[in-house]
Amino acid sequence: xxxxxxxxxxxxxxxxxxxxxxxxxxxxxxxxxxxxxxxxxxxxxxxxxxxxxxxxxxxxxxxxxxxxxxxxxxxxxxxxxxxxxxxxxxxxxxxxxxxxxxxxxxxxxxxxxxxxxx
Length: 118
Description:
The protein is mostly beta strands. The chain has strands at 3-7, 10-12, 18-25, 33-39, 46-51, 58-60, 68-73, 78-83, 92-99, 107-108, 112-116. The strands form 2 sheets. Strands 2, 4, 5, 6, 9, 10 and 11 form a 7-stranded mixed beta sheet that branches.
């Protein structure tokens, strides 16, 4: 059984920063590409950032490019999403996911709320 547990969400003012963390347990962390998704109210879930198991390949959505950075620490079984220059439109539930680098992930976290508001 693979478990993903996110943390780090919260309320932040526009222009602020947050760092989300996702700890993976139950299987070899390096077996998986790691991804961050988000879902805003009334909208479909969208892919935000992806990192291969080695960290050598990353993808970031155009909507967050230059503001969000994905990273991973394989020694800690943890993936991060550093979010800078946050905008109100970044408000969403953010989900961590594990699986292949594309396609539907195999495992999901429970999600963490990020609210950007003044």
